[in-house]
Amino acid sequence: MPFYRAHVLVCNGTPCILKGSRAIQAALVEEIKKKGLENEIKVVETGCLGISEYGPVIVVYPEGTTYCGVTVNDVPDIVEEHLLKGRVLQRLVYNAKPAGVTTAPASARQKEHRIVLKNVGAIDPTSIEEYIAVGGYEALGKALTEMRPVDVVESVKKSGLRGRGGAAFPTGLKWELTANECGDGKAIVCNADEGEPGNFKDRLILEGDPHSIIEAMIIGGYAIGANKGYVYIRGEYHQSVSHLELAIAQAREMELLGENILGSGFAFDIEVFKGAGAYICGEETALLESLEGTRGESRMKPPYPPTSGLNSRPTVINNVETLANIPQIILNGPEWFASIGTEKSAGTKIFSPCGDVLMPGVYEVPFGTTMREVIYEMAGGIKSGKDLKAVLIGGPSGVCVSKADLDRQFAFEDLPPGAGALIVMDDAKCMVDMMQNCAQFFLHESCGQCVPCREGTKRLHEMFTWWQAGAGSPGDLELAKELGEVMSTAAKCGLGQFAATAFRTSLPLFEEEYRSHVVDKVCPNGVCEMDNGHGSEVV
Amino acid sequence: MEKKECSCCKSSGDENGYSAVIRTFEKKRGNVIPALHAVQAKMGHLPEEAMQEIADWLDVPISDVFGTATFYTLFSTEPKGRYVVRICDSPPCHIEGSNAIRAAITKELGINPGETTEDGQFSFETVSCFGLCGVAPAIMVNEDVYGNLTPQMIGEILLKYRKKES
Amino acid sequence: MSKITLTINGLPVVAEERMTILQAAEGAGIYIPTLCHHPDLRTEGVCRICIVDVKGQKLLQPACAFPVSDGMSIMTHSPRVRQARKMIIELLLANHPQDCLTCSKNQKCELQKLAKEYGIEDVPFRGERRIQEEDASSASVIRDPEKCIMCKRCIRVCHELQSVGTLSASGRGWDMSIGPALGKTMVEAVCVNCGQCINRCPTGALREKSSVQQVWAALHDPAKHVVVQTAPAVRAAIGEEFGMEPGHRVTGKMVTALKAMGFDKVFDTDFTADLTIMEEGYELIHRIKEGGVLPQLTSCSPGWIKFIEHFYPELLPHVSSCKSPQQMFGALAKTYYAEKAGIDPKDIVSVSIMPCAAKKYECDRPEMADSGYKDVDYVLTTREAAAMMKEAGIDLPNLPDGQYDDPLGESTGAAVIFGSTGGVMEAALRTAYAVLTGTELDDVNITAVRGMDGVRSAEIPVAGITVKAAVAHGLANAREVMEGIKSGKFADYHFIEIMCCPGGCIGGGGQPIPTNEEIRKKRAQAIYEEDEAMTVRRSHENPSVQKLYKEFLGEPLSHKSHELLHTHYTPRGIKPDPKPEEKPVKVKID
Predict the structure, then answer these.
(1) If you measure CA to CA, which chain B residue comes closest to C166?
(2) What is the pLDDT of residue C460?
(3) Which of C110, C146, C241, C362 is catalytic?
(4) Which of A360, A358, A430, A418 is closest to A389 using CA atoms?
(5) Sorting pLDDT into bands at 50, 70 and 90, what band is C13?
(6) What is the pLDDT of residue A53?
(7) Which terminus of chain C, N or C, has less C-beta within 10 A?
(8) CB B159 within 8 A of CB B121
(9) Which chains touch A (3 or more CB pairs under 8 A)?
(10) Subunit contact A292:B92, Cβ cutoff 8 A
(11) Are the Cβ atoms of A296 and B71 closer than 8 angstroms?
(12) Would you list the DSSP string of A12-72?
């Protein structure tokens, strides 16, 4: 590899591309050539840097200077000042002044602890060489040459890693259950059907570090005795699909996928499967149905996938973020991983605060970090100086918490993080309006097979819509509450079981506001347009 | 995806545009969704005859192929506009004002979600989250994504696609 | 399997490992309500009405699917179970037409029954109800989607037991609906009209197309001579509609009832079943001797005929050209009988009572008019016939036995077993043996072809050759056999009996609801009992059949036989009918 004294990383995450990062990249290459620096400085595309709010973003290494809000017109300055003269261009530096933002903490990323996102934004995701240069596929080499499959399973178990898709099932145990099943045709499936509103971490990993997922899946396949892996990516993630497909082709080219990986005799290959627009396919058995070519309707459990999964064969299904931890655990040892986070929640968790926060984005922090730290110190707090009203943790299927919970720690034993979305609402927002919107999501996404979910999501949506319009009936609140309870215990799968969770958890916190809508026909925040003559007056 | 004319399609009598694509798939049930994707990429929607051909080729009952095709929102059994404008109305975008964006698109295109313009250029759909919550509110036009939107930006964005036509 | 002990509602229950909670509870006499569960079908677990409280489980678990384990403690009616069940029923009712009094399933609806059991007095949910149009396009099966509760039993029976796949779910969530692919109507879709979906439907969402009013009109028309034929399987099941236990045959009572209703002549399809054996048996012998296409496939089941026309048209040369007994009867009623009785055939209304929904379609087929008239005018299912009897104030269980009329009422034990899977084969073998060897079988009970296994085969040495025979019932099994024929697995077979419905006609789509394997076995047993009780048990010994040949047809496979008793088939393929409106759906013959 030729030696470059500096790398300029251009974020080509989806949000930055739409803000013109491609043109900036072309301009950079052109300008660098013009200055005769093309043999000294390399321009590299990276995955999303996680601060897409301020895109287009570029980072200059080795200094690690981040510029945001860059335009094509800024390119000559950056090349002239920074790359030629070595002077940081203060007017575009991220820490100093995100455009259009009034207050921004200087150290938004100081509390981050990047394991999963280690390479995201730091390497070119379209280059396997760069991944290898930062230690990529070393864990695979270690697993295949120094460890037996049972050792790999043991390591993952000891690390304390739990699923990051929301259900938090111990990953090592899942692998062990599958490894203990006999017979061939086993499979490992990466669940990249990230569809819970507010979550976009998996997209970031897939776009920014696809090889880490490939490496983890090969290791997982080796551990459980599977020769086939599938990545089920939601159909809307075009960039993720293309980066992953490219990475798989590269890995095949280098024989990291194929018949005899690293001379170990272990054979493994990966297929990318594009979803087609169904949130339910994030539920693992619905995902399997979809992989088998049918309607994504969840299966009865038991049997669980480790016993009977894809084509009735033992199958491990892991979330993207979960898998991205695997190479690091193998490389650094389970003790290292277990030492991060809290006693019962090992490692880090990616959070994606969005909604009414100043700096929506993706932040990876150790377990034990408080919600206040993530929302206020990292995401910059509430926009426009308003106060925090509520947070939906994990997304619409998560619990609703208020300010009172700000100092709780994210950990399975305290405040479970769900998949990591933090949908933040300021105090000008209306809870009924929010619940109506959540209910609309579930109504749209319910697969329809079971009665509590198909009929329940419809009736909840109707009731919230009536409340919004001032058309509620006495007794509605109690009926909705009871319906929510029945859905949570009687629905067939997680979608229906959690479709009313946000409502059920918000009801005790904001009962006055609900009653005001249902009984008094008034929206205290003036968000809902009542049809009853009260209008949207604030009372 | 661009429509391509290739000699193999012509010689195999692929007048309908999808038969050759369908026949590239291995005959297994798991290929129903990939085959539907491929046909839709070529045709813009899923014609009845194409679904029947997928059923025949993969040896799956047509009722199952149809059941699958209508389950997933990215598939359409009806012809769509050349450009499909999808607006996210999930909570993060809702908080950030997706209602105003929706109104702006309706005003600009003269159609409501679920409709297609008379000239067949644009279809408009409300969809669930597409993972752009960091730049909410967001829309997609075919595979292009746009975030951090204000209603004022809609006219300019759609104009780009109008220009592509003329 | 080892025994385990668990507790249900505080009572100790011994169950077998791998049983579901529902099975364990049923074994212990504990009732758990179900809706989407059906013993014939794969478990779906979608209605959630069978949820129970399992100690240690946060979620309520579906009894139909959840496996028992040793020491498990279950409550089948804890407060949260009752609350959830009640709400599930309310949710279903909120989206259901409240027209129970005028519904075809009134008093037989499983949803209605549950609403009563859970004391639903008011539905708390107001709001939208799915509005969908009724599809009455089919000659056999009417769909009323508004009454559909999406339990998917119809889909499962259509795919799993019948491998036809007409019905499936389309759309998603609230917008989901059940119906044929591509939004087609039932007549456009590839449907074999078997009506198995009707038998599985818990509500009034599926029903047969009724001919009750037309038959009443004919009975009340003094200018019409109304004759009725009763299929073998009807006598073994119609009693169930009057509260009798399954397996109770009521042949004589049924004849009395039909006469009381006003039918001019009560005949028996068994007569033409015997005739079928003659024609089909001679056809088989002809094929064996002349090197015709073998194995020969039976042709008496109209659902099966439509199935092979759609899915295996290339195998149609294997199918016997014999019409079904119903249609043979129809052709004779308006020729032979009309002549003998001196009645103008245009004044004869020919009604048949069948365990079958597909027979309604069959009698409408354009080729079924060889008498010069529509051979069979109306088909009533067992259920419709029972409904008419009730309307006529008939108390079937307490009627005296009556006798079938001559000449189309005489039959043998070989004919009655047509009603059960394996029966046609057994009847054919009884006669083939006699024809080929010139001697009679010592024991007419050929038990090798009886039973409920999906595909069975037997080898019977007959006059120097070994007749290889196979039997299949349920179209999924038929499909297996067809694939076997294509792959050469059945190359040395002579004769294969195929029945469309699981269990044969006793499990037909027009039979009393509910159906399950236990009930079908009991009905089959009744059929075999009737055979045992008959003095004549071989078709060729039926005196009326012998007389028919002597007086009218000449001999089996004669020109006249071919004209009246044989037919041809239409290769259809599996594409939905593109322009059904251009095709005659019904033949109108004056």
Answers:
(1) B63
(2) 87
(3) C362
(4) A430
(5) very high
(6) 61
(7) C
(8) no
(9) B, C
(10) no
(11) yes
(12) -SHHHHHTTHHHHHHHHHHHHHHTT-TTTEEEEEES--S-GGG-S-EEEETTTEEE-S--G
Which chains lie within 8 Å of chain C at 3 or more CB pairs, if any?
Answer: A, B
The band of C273, judged by pLDDT with boundaries at 50, 70 and 90, is very high
Give the model's confidence band at A63: pLDDT under 50 very low, under 70 low, under 90 confident, else very high.
Answer: low
Q: Name the residue among A129, A319, A56 with its Cα closest to residue A206.
A: A319
Interface of B with A in 67-126 (CB under 8 A): 67-68, 71-75, 88-96
Mutate to test the interface with C, among A486, A488, A493 (most CBs of C within 10 A): A486
For residue C66, give the amino acid letter: F
Q: Is the pLDDT of residue C588 over 50?
A: no
Write out B94-148 in H/E/C secondary structure. HHCCHHHHHHHHHHHHCCCCCCECCCCCEEEEEECCCCCHHHCCCEEECCEEECC
Region A394-415: what's the mean pLDDT?
96
Is residue C382 scored above 50 in pLDDT?
A: yes
- Give the best residue of B51, B57, B63, B66 to mutate against chain C (max C CB count within 10 A): B63
Rounded to an integer, the average pLDDT of C136-149 is: 97
Is C486 strand, coil or helix? helix
- Across the range C1-25, mean pLDDT stands at 94
**Cα→Cα distances C343→A450, C225, C259, C335, C363, Å:** 59, 8, 19, 10, 22
- Residue ranges of the alpha helices (H) in A351-405? 371-372
Provide mean pLDDT across the span C120-127. Answer: 94
pLDDT for position A259: 96
Cβ distance of B61 and C575 shorter than 8 Å: no
The contacts of residue C13 (CB under 8 Å, 6+ apart) are: C5, C6, C7, C24, C25, C27, C28, C30
- HSE-CB at C133 with a 13 A cutoff on CA atoms is 7
Distance to chain C for B76, nearest Cα, Å: 11
According to DSSP, the β-strands at C296-297 and B139-141 are unpaired
Of the candidates C166, C169, C575, the beta carbon closest to that of B52 is on C575
Q: Which of chain A's residues have a Cβ under 8 Å away from the Cβ of C83?
A: 482, 485-486
Considering only the beta carbons, identify the residue of A279, A296, A360 that sits closest to B133.
A360
The single residue of C146, C241, C279, C280 carrying the catalytic annotation is C280
Short-list A312, A395, A398, A324, CA closest to A353: A395
How does residue A506 score in pLDDT terms, banded at 50, 70 and 90?
very high
Could you tell me the pLDDT band of residue C586, with boundaries at 50, 70 and 90? very low
User: Would you place residue B165 in the very low, low, confident or very high pLDDT band (cuts 50, 70, 90)?
Assistant: low
Contact C418, C505 (CB under 8 A): yes
Which residues of chain C neighbour B48 with C-beta distances below 8 Å?
Answer: 182
